[in-house]
Amino acid sequence: MFKPLAFISPLAILLAGCMEPAPLADASAPVAQASTELAGAVSAADPRAEAAGEAILAKGGSATDAAIAVMLALTVVEPQSSGIGGGGFMVRGGEDGLTTFDGREIAPASATGTRFLDEAGEQLPFETRTVSGLSVGVPGNIALAAKAHALHGKLEWAELFEPAITLARDGFVMNRRLHGSLSGSMDRAAKTESARAIFFDADGDPLPVGARITVPELASTLEWIAAQGAKGFYDDASDAFASYVASQTPKDGRMSAADVRGYEAKLRDPVCVEYRSYNVCGMGPPSSGGVAVGQMLGQLERFNLAALGPDSATFWHLFLESQRIAYADRELYIGDEDYVEVPVEGLLDPAYLTTRSAMIDPAQALKTVEPGTPPDAPLARADGDEPPENGTTHFAVVDEEGNAISYTSTIEGAFGSGLHWAGFYLNNELTDFSSNPDVDGVEVANRVEGGKRPRSSMAPTIVFDENGEVVLVIGAAGGPTIPVQVARSIIGVIDFDMSAREALGLPLLMAFGSTVISEEGSIVAGLVEELKAFGHPDIRFMSPRGKANALLRTPTGWESAGDPRVADLLVYEPASIGETSGSEVP
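-> structure tokens emitted (586 positions)
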């Protein structure tokens, strides 16, 4: 169902860079076009990965097949954000129903609640916690792909790997975005000799924009998994993988081959809420995204947002209040439902949302916001201390039969843990757990436990109209801002009658306690005094940030749209999958 996000230090979020800064949308940038027929479409964070999905659709592949090909291609061309060294969540909608797949990473069986604490009970230094094997969970993306393919695939498993193998073997062009990520995250990106050999020159500097990158070791890894199936990773390579991670783990709780062999991607119950005449469906626990999106929309439904419009300070005030109320619940209630009781139905219960919505005063901000008590809420939960989430990617696919995939994939921080094995970066997802297992003796829902999956903000979402037709497939990257980006864009499409590109281009405006962050040069910049008059005194501006992708059904076909903030960072000249020219790279 739905989950709210945790309160996070505003300063931490501002300085940690949970989203990459990007230039303002350029009016001259190409506008996403709708296809002339509803024959299928792909939206991804890199055009080469998008092309991989399109190639699979052209061969007669299903939306599931194409989404898997996109995930694999992003492993190659977007190593800072996602890949087979991490995990993800997939939401699939079609005539045969709605299915959600949980490919979230898991902690080693021997992990305990004090994993990120020293002997004195103090938090370990960042380097020890994050840029080491302590942060690495057993990856889930390959297992997720295999489970989804077994249920909904049409092409042979090995065919889905061909575009990514070509990209890794023959090479791809360094774009501005990857170059900027390498430069800004040297501590992780250049941690290992194998990664330095791929992305850096002899002086230790990132290769220049326009350089051709080849990753032959990753090509070999992908070829092996293509030939052997998921067992090629989880069985055949389990000893080597676990041994490598364990060798980089500075304390007890090391990963074992049994942890890798025992990994299972799971089917979860989807989370759906009605908004206007639409049905908005997403991912349930251990993701918090579906619940958070649902709560925000449910709390705002009583307001006539269409009449207010995106230029209204009142709209943005209402949106901020809905965030604050939704996120207040998250810390106490959301975690891996295999380990803790999560009152998903209660958090999305219409009567509960009505009482929470009633807290929103259209004229005045709340002084403080406390968690609510939804039906069947477990007693005595404590607020944890998770750091901000970071590197993630989202992609959306629709096939000619109308089946839709919304898939968010991640390795957590930029370049994950910095550990690089078999041609790809390994995640640091376990830092999404609370560092402390309890507060004053009261357990934290998102504490570390062996075999447990850390809570996530990812919010892959599919929106259906009153006839059950898919109208919007959407998701985002950006850690704790993900549900805000998704809810904001859904409001843009449904209430403001925007195109997908216009909705994704709406400014980020997010509350962290009493502090509000937004973007320089956005609509909100001209509304500061009005928002302060509502009771939002601390408004801070950053360079434009965000990274979302969507497919929107239009009268003429599917509109494939990416966040206009990052369009200028992805420039390259595609000749064919895996064959690119650097002539157009600035």
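The chain is about 30% helix and 20% strand.
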